[in-house]
C-alpha cells in the first residue's frame, strides 16, 4: 500500500521539464499530443524517482487528456514505478537465456547482499531490486540495468555485483 | 569468408559517427535513391531482392510495402520496430549501438520509397542508451543535409523521431506498437484493417524491423538482383543471428542464409561450439517463441539431411520435427540444462507479457505457468503433460495477435520432444528438484572429435 504522505507529496514541474515536454509534443501532428505520454512519463520518473498519482494527474492536465488515460498507461507498462523505490533500482533479467548462464544465482546473491526482498527498499533508502523480463542482451548475461539512463552491467558475477554496489553506495551518500 | 552487408565496417573505429560512416561509403544509397530513382523504383528493387521481414514473421518486405494505400492528401508513415524483446534476440540493440547511421540511412531511403514525410523509430524504453545514440546520429545526419527540408536539394522532406516504449514485449506486435506510439496501452488491434490501410493515427503505415530497414541500404546500393545471389532459394541475403546460451562465443553474427547449422554452431568463426567441454542438448533457433528442438533433430532433419540456417530448412518437418527462423535469437542448451525449468521460465514470461485482451492467452498462459511450476518443483502429476498440451491447443489460433501462438508453441514442442524428461519429473519428483535429467538420448548425432571428460 502506498502511504498517505507518499501519495500526497506535492509535485511541481519545473519550467525546464515543461520545455522538454513541449519539445516532445512537437514531434507529432497537431491534436495527437497524447503520443507524448510514454516519453513524458519517463521524464517524470527520471525527475521524481517514480510516477505518483498527483504527477499523473498533472501530466493528464498538461496533455489535455483524462486522468484515467494516464493511469491505464502507467499501470500497463512495466518500466513505470507506481510507488517510491530506492535511489538505485537494480533490475536483473530473469528470462530463460540469462538463467542458462546463472541469473537466478545472481538474483539470490543481490537479495542476500542488500538484505531486502524483491520490490523492497533498503533502510538507507538507497537500493531496491527486482527481476525483469528479457532485456535483449542474451549474449552477455547475466545482466542488470539501472535507470533513469538504464546503464547496463553485463556478464555479472558476485564480485562484479559487490563492486557495483560499493560504487553506488559511495555515489549515493554524496 | 562470408559476405557481410550490414556489419562489414562494424569494427572501424568511430563508425558510430557521421563522418567516419560517410567516409566508408555511408549514405550513398540516399544519394542514389533520391537523385536517380523514383519511389516505385525503390519498392521494385526491394521486391526483387526477396528480402523477408527480419523481425520474426519473415513476410516479404517489398510486398508489404506494395500494400500501402496512397489516398490523396493523407499522410503516410514509416515506423521502425526497434522494440526488440524476444528472449534470445539482441541483434537490433547491437546494430543500433555500433552502427546507428545504417538504420538512419535505411529509414531515409525507405521513407522516400513509401512517401512518408514523418517517420518514427519506436525503441523499447529499456534501451535508453541506444535512444541517445540514435538521437545524436539523427542530429548529425540532419546537420549534413540528409534529413529535414529539401534533402540534398531534391525537394524531399523528412523528419525522423525516436520514440521510447514503456517496457512491454507485446509492443513488438505491429498494431500494439502503433497503439503505444499513440500513447495508449499496447493492446493489439483486430485486423483488418491492416496498418497499410489504417495504421498510425488512422493513416496508411508500414512497420518494419530494424534489420529489415538496414538491409534496404545494400539492396539499393548493389541492386535487388545482386542481393538474391546471396543465400539459398527464398532465403535471400544475409541475416543477423544473436547467439547466446551455453556456447563459447556468444554474440551477434551476420551469416549468409543457407549456412549449415553445424558450421554455425561449431566453427570458431561463429559460436565456437559448446562452452566448458559440455555437449549440446537442445536449441531454440529463432527466439523463445519458436519450437525447441533436441540436438539430434536440430543438426539433421528427420530425413537425415544436414539442416541449414535458412527459413525453409529450419522449418523442415513442420511442427513435428522442425522449428522456425523467427527473429534469429539462437539459444543453445547444454547437457546440464533442465527443459522443464526452461519451459516454465518461458511460460512465466508470456504470462507476464500477455496484454490481457483475449481470455485464452490471459488465462491459458497463467495456467500453463502454474502447472509447469508444480512439475518443476516436484508436485506434478502424470496427467499434467496432456493438460499442458490441451491448454496450449486452446490458446493457439484463438487470439487477436500471435502472442498466444508464441506462448503455446514452446510448451507444445517441449512436451513433444522431451516428454520423458517431463515424466521423470513426476516419477522421480524428489530427485528432480536436486539434479537434472541430463543429456539422455538427445545428443547431437555428429561423431565426436574428442571424448568428453568423465
UniProtKB/TrEMBL annotation, chain A:
SUPFAM superfamilies recorded: Thioredoxin-like
Keyword Iron recorded: yes
Cofactor note: Binds 1 [2Fe-2S] cluster.
Any one Gene Ontology molecular-function term assigned to this protein's record: NADH dehydrogenase activity
Signal sequence range: none
Binding residues for [2Fe-2S] cluster: 93, 98, 134, 138
Cross-referenced CDD domains: TRX_Fd_NuoE
Superkingdom of origin organism: Bacteria
Family of this protein: Belongs to the complex I 24 kDa subunit family.
Name listed for the protein in its UniProt record: NADH-quinone oxidoreductase subunit E
Species in which this protein is naturally found: Mucilaginibacter frigoritolerans
Lineage of origin: Bacteria, Pseudomonadati, Bacteroidota, Sphingobacteriia, Sphingobacteriales
TrEMBL record, chain B:
Signal peptide annotation: none
Residue ranges occupied by any NADH-ubiquinone oxidoreductase 51kDa subunit iron-sulphur binding domain in the UniProt entry: 340-385
Identification of the protein by name: NADH-quinone oxidoreductase subunit F
Keyword terms: 4Fe-4S, Flavoprotein, FMN, Iron, Iron-sulfur, Metal-binding, NAD, Quinone, Translocase
This protein's record includes keyword Cell cycle: no
Cofactor(s) essential for the protein: [4Fe-4S] cluster; FMN
Family named by the database record: Belongs to the complex I 51 kDa subunit family.
Pfam families in UniProt: Complex1_51K, NADH_4Fe-4S
Amino acid at each position: 500500500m502506498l502511504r498517505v504522505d507518499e501519495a500526497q507529496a506535492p509535485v511541481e514541474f519545473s519550467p525546464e521539464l515543461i520545455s522538454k515536454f513541449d519539445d516532445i509534443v512537437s514531434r507529432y501532428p497537431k491534436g495527437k499530443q497524447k503520443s507524448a505520454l510514454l516519453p513524458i512519463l519517463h521524464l517524470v520518473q527520471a525527475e521524481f524517482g517514480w510516477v505518483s498519482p498527483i504527477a499523473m494527474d498533472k501530466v493528464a492536465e498538461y496533455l489535455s487528456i483524462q486522468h484515467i488515460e494516464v493511469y491505464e498507461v502507467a499501470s500497463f507498462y512495466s518500466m513505470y514505478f507506481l510507488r517510491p523505490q530506492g535511489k538505485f533500482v537494480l533490475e536483473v533479467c530473469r528470462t530463460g537465456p540469462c538463467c542458462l548462464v546463472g541469473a537466478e544465482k545472481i538474483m539470490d546473491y543481490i537479495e542476500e547482499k542488500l538484505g531486502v526482498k524483491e520490490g523492497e527498499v533498503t533502510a538507507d533508502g538507497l537500493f531496491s531490486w527486482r527481476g525483469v523480463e528479457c532485456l535483449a542482451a542474451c549474449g552477455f548475461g547475466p545482466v542488470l540495468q539501472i535507470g533513469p539512463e538504464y546503464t547496463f552491467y553485463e556478464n555479472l558475477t558476485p564480485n562484479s555485483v559487490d563492486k557495483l554496489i560499493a560504487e553506488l553506495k559511495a555515489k549515493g551518500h554524496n | 569468408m562470408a559476405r557481410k552487408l550490414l556489419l562489414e565496417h562494424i569494427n572501424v573505429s568511430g563508425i558510430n559517427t557521421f563522418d567516419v560512416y560517410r567516409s566508408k561509403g555511408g549514405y550513398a544509397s540516399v544519394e542514389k535513391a533520391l537523385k536517380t530513382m523514383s519511389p516505385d523504383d525503390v519498392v521494385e528493387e526491394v521486391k526483387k531482392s526477396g528480402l523477408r521481414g527480419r523481425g520474426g514473421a519473415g513476410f516479404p518486405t517489398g510486398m508489404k510495402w506494395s500494400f500501402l494505400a496512397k489516398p490523396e492528401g493523407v499522410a503516410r508513415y514509416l515506423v521502425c520496430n526497434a522494440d526488440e524483446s524476444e528472449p534470445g534476440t539482441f541483434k537490433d540493440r547491437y546494430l543500433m549501438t555500433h552502427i546507428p547511421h545504417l538504420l538512419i540511412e535505411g529509414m531515409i531511403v525507405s521513407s522516400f520509397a513509401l512517401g512518408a514525410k514523418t517517420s518514427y523509430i519506436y525503441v523499447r524504453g529499456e534501451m535508453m542508451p541506444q535512444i541517445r545514440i540514435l538521437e545524436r546520429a539523427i542530429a548529425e545526419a540532419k546537420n549534413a543535409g540528409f534529413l529535414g527540408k529539401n534533402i540534398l536539394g531534391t525537394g524531399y522532406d523528412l523528419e525522423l523521431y525516436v520514440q521510447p516504449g514503456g517496457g512491454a514485449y507485446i509492443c513488438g506486435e505491429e498494431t500494439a506498437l502503433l497503439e503505444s506510439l499513440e500513447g495508449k496501452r499496447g493492446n493489439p488491434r483486430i485486423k483488418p484493417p491492416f496498418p497499410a490501410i489504417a495504421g498510425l493515427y488512422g493513416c496508411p503505415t508500414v512497420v518494419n524491423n530494424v534489420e529489415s530497414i538496414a538491409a534496404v541500404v545494400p539492396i539499393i546500393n548493389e541492386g535487388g538482383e545482386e542481393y538474391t545471389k546471396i543465400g539459398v532459394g527464398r532465403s535471400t541475403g544475409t541475416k543477423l543471428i544473436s547467439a547466446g546460451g551455453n556456447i563459447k562465443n556468444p554474440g551477434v553474427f551476420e551469416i549468409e542464409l543457407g549456412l549449415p547449422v553445424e558450421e554455425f554452431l561449431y566453427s570458431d568463426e561463429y559460436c565456437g561450439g559448446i562452452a566448458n567441454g559440455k555437449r549440446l542438448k537442445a536449441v531454440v533457433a529463432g527466439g523463445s517463441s519458436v519450437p525447441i528442438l533436441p540436438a539430434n533433430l536440430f543438426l539433421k532433419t528427420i530425413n537425415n539431411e544436414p539442416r541449414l540456417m535458412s527459413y525453409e530448412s529450419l522449418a523442415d518437418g513442420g511442427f513435428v520435427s522442425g522449428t522456425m527462423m523467427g527473429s534469429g535469437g539462437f539459444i543453445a542448451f547444454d547437457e546440464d540444462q533442465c527443459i522443464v525449468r526452461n519451459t516454465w521460465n518461458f511460460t512465466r514470461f508470456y504470462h507476464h507479457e500477455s496484454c490481457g485482451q483475449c481470455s485464452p492467452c490471459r488465462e491459458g498462459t497463467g495456467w500453463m505457468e502454474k502447472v509447469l511450476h508444480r512439475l518443476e518443483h516436484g508436485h506434478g502429476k502424470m496427467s499434467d503433460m496432456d493438460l499442458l498440451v490441451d491448454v496450449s491447443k486452446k490458446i493457439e489460433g484463438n487470439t487477436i495477435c500471435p502472442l498466444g501462438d508464441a506462448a503455446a508453441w514452446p510448451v507444445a514442442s517441449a512436451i513433444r520432444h522431451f516428454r520423458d524428461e517431463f515424466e521423470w519429473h513426476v516419477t522421480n519428483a524428489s530427485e528432480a528438484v536436486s539434479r537434472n535429467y541430463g543429456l539422455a538420448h538427445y545428443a547431437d548425432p555428429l561423431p565426436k572429435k574428442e571424448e568428453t571428460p568423465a
